[in-house]
Design goal:
19 helices, 3 domains, Dimethylsulfoxide Reductase, domain 2, globular, Barwin-like endoglucanases
């Protein structure tokens, strides 16, 4: 997030898109509700489903899945055409405006309506409210990024903020809501295939030399080529490029797309190591399992969605032979010939801070007194609640024109429904933790396929009946839930249930830049399971 969580209630307009905030980020959603109820903020929701947040929305734009760029380009068109843009901000703090103006000129609200299904007058109203407010903030989550056009979606949102100057001030900003409790921290630490810690690119020779010196390793040992993403790793097994996989704290046998392909890869790879706290579906395929400690059993830091770095401390001792991740990795590295002598995570953090500019002013001693938001470049720096206050990291903000591209897989006569996937409040991700909670599993015990009543009537379906949902990649059996939350022609499933794994259906096509799979759009058919019919997958 460019801004802080406390800034949410300061916004006069909240544009929330691709985020079922009340279920996936319930704490943050309370701030959004507070902004609406207590401070009169207008909430503009862009989401195909009528989620709970729609009850608080001033305006709900229900687009066809995968048509986000069309809507945001049309909003930019209206803002420019009506003169609602912030010209002083554009002239002093941005570049590339002329290219954007040319690119969005054909994107009239009527054209966007034809593609997205959102009425043109709603697009105009959304553009007016967002642009004319003194403080407007944009929030998004994986409903924006989990598309083959995910990068374009984010660029289109960024263009709106730059057009209006709604960035670098309280109550404004571009605010991605991170999907898991420490995913921001994992990325900060270099848990991406193309960067070292602090998003320092591996292709930069100066960066590689800095890390080689800091880590005490020969410069030649640090590869200049970016590594592979998860989907590329699975493909690499098939072509012989990948012979071993080490998976830590993840369950790709539920969370990755096109699970039949994932199973083939993980069954075929020569050596599979799993480091985790439970025996999940992926661990069942492993050659070696390394038992790890949970968050409540170890020391370290987490970085949350507002870039706030916080200490965690052990409340319990690890069970059995389980160890904290850093100890397992250190012992493994030393068995492979390293000479690491870490005795506590504080030493690892100090090494990180010495090599990572935005963490340079942080230490365990400072974090003992409370969390700090990066960038925090010096020991006396208070942290940064709001990014881009006076200038952008690159100097000037760059407008990035993008054009609409449809989803990779669209509906046809054989597969007439669009499937979208997501989470529900009571379970989390692959269910490795939440489905081991009897209370949560009692509330939400079975996988459901959400379908509009009109579609259910046409197919002769009723609540509670079993249906087979099939795509070009696989099929699952789940329980029907008739509800107007999903629009006509669209069905929705969660990916929490191994017995009806929605990712058997999803497509492994990826965004060409971010390499994120298109979990949110694929084509499926829905068929009633007849009495006595086998439900085997």
């Amino acid at each position: 997030m460019t801004n802080s969580i406390r800034d949410i209630e300061r916004a006069q307009v909240l544009l929330v898109t691709g985020s079922n905030t009340t279920e996936a980020h319930p704490v943050l959603s309370l701030q959004m509700k507070k902004a609406v109820r207590k401070h009169g903020a207008k909430l503009i929701l862009v989401d195909p489903r009528r989620i709970e947040l729609a009850d608080f929305a001033w305006l709900h734009l229900r687009q066809r899945p995968g048509t986000d760029v069309a809507i945001f380009n049309a909003m930019a068109h209206v803002i420019i055409a009506e003169g609602w843009l912030n010209r002083p901000f554009i002239e002093t703090r941005t570049e590339g405006f002329a290219a954007l103006e040319t690119a969005v000129k054909p994107w009239t609200p009527a054209r966007a309506e034809a593609i997205s299904g959102v009425p043109a007058e709603q697009i105009v109203a959304a553009a007016r409210a967002y642009a004319q407010a003194e403080r407007s903030a944009i929030f998004w989550a994986m409903g924006i990024t989990q598309h083959t056009t995910g990068t374009d979606n984010v660029k289109a949102l960024s263009n709106l903020a730059l057009l209006t100057g709604h960035i670098g001030r309280p109550g404004t900003g571009l605010n991605p809501l991170r999907g898991q409790n420490n995913v921001q921290g994992a990325c900060d630490m270099g848990g991406l295939p193309n960067v070292f810690p602090g998003y320092q690119p591996v292709v930069d020779e100066a960066v590689r030399r800095k890390f080689a010196a800091g880590w005490g390793v020969p410069y030649e040992r640090l590869n200049e080529h970016p590594g592979l993403t998860v989907t590329e790793i699975m493909n690499g097994v098939e072509n012989g490029r990948i012979r071993a996989i080490f998976i830590m704290g993840e369950n790709p046998m539920l969370s990755d797309p096109n699970l039949n392909h994932v199973r083939e890869a993980l069954s075929q790879v020569e050596f599979l190591v799993i480091q985790d706290i439970f025996l999940n579906e992926t661990a069942e395929l492993a050659d070696v399992i390394l038992p790890a400690a949970s968050f409540a059993e170890k020391s370290g830091t987490f970085t949350n969605t507002e870039r706030r770095v916080q200490l965690i401390r052990p409340a319990l001792s690890p069970p059995g032979i389980a160890k904290p991740d850093w100890q397992i990795i250190t012992e493994l590295a030393n068995r492979l010939g390293a000479n690491w002598h870490y005795t506590h995570p504080r030493e690892i953090f100090a090494e990180l801070a010495a090599l990572t500019p935005q963490y340079a002013g942080m230490s365990y001693e400072r974090l003992e007194k409370g969390g700090l938001q990066w960038p925090c470049p010096t020991p006396d720096h208070p942290g940064t609640p709001i990014l881009h206050v006076e200038k952008f990291a690159r100097g000037k903000g760059l407008f990035c024109p993008v054009d609409y591209r449809p989803p990779v897989e669209e509906t046809d006569e054989t597969y007439p429904f669009i499937l979208s996937t997501g989470r529900i409040l009571f379970h989390w991700h692959g269910g490795t933790l939440s489905r081991r909670s009897p209370g949560l599993d009692e509330i939400a015990p079975v996988a459901e396929v959400e379908i509009h009543p009109q579609d259910a009537h046409r197919l002769g379906l009723q609540d509670g009946e079993l249906v087979r949902v099939s795509s070009r990649r696989g099929q699952v059996v789940a329980t029907v839930k008739c509800t107007g939350r999903s629009p006509v022609g669209t069905v929705f499933m969660t990916f929490h249930f191994a017995e009806a794994a929605a990712n058997l259906l999803t497509i492994d096509a990826v965004d060409p830049t971010a390499k994120i799979p298109e979990y949110k759009v694929c084509a499926v058919k829905v068929e009633k399971v007849k009495v006595g019919e086998s439900v085997a997958k």
